[in-house]
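Listing S7. Sequence submitted for prediction.
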Amino acid sequence: MFSKAIVRTPAESLGQGITEAGLGCPDMELTRAQHNNYIEYFKQAGISVTVLPAVEEFPDSVFVEDTAVMIPHGNETAAFLTCPGAESRRGEVDEIDAAIADQTDAIIRMQGDGLMEGGDVLLMGKTFYVGIDSRTNALGCEQFTKAAARFGYKTVPVPFDNGMPHLKTELSALDEETLIMSARFAEREEFAGFKKIIVPEGEEYCSNCLYLGQKLLAPQGFPKTAELLDKNGFKPDYIDMSEFRKMDGGLTCLSLRW
């Protein structure tokens, strides 16, 4: 499903980033170890990983997914550069621009008052689902819709009330036809055509899994969800995400994939 990924080394300033988790500051030694494990998992899956250096000026910059949306088309890939709703993160887009310039055939950048963070964008087949919330606005979704249509993609807006950073905080893919999600998305019309696994109350963090095609990665430490996945025939690998969880980050947040 993916052959390439971009990640960014965690900044020592990570604990100064945006979070509402209330779980304390990350242990940076453990953070680096968890990030290295994440990278190693990608490599074992046969995915080529570009590791970008830390940017201390931007504490949240390890969550590289929010800065761009990759749009594969044929043997090439376009990149849609976002404008994060969190103003303190907007400079991260300039940092990623240079890093992806030689890995894409087209770069499209958000204009005007459009806002978007990649954590609000879920790709299923040839359809992008875009969360509309405090981080991504309707103007941003409209611009992205036009850009994605150039490459044969449909876009479905998914407005929701916040209470979580991004759409994919509580909604992600397990395979090409199954979604894992928190209960509040279970009856949404936008996802009526998919199989669904609803995580138990209190384990909503495990709604953010990472489907890589031949492999599935899930955060460890959520036994009820792990049992539910097993009963439904899913055999994910599990990885410790404790330090990134403290900063409202999940598995999908840590990479750009195409």
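Caption to Listing S7: primary sequence and predicted structure tokens for the chain studied. The mean pLDDT is 97. The longest helix spans residues 28-44.
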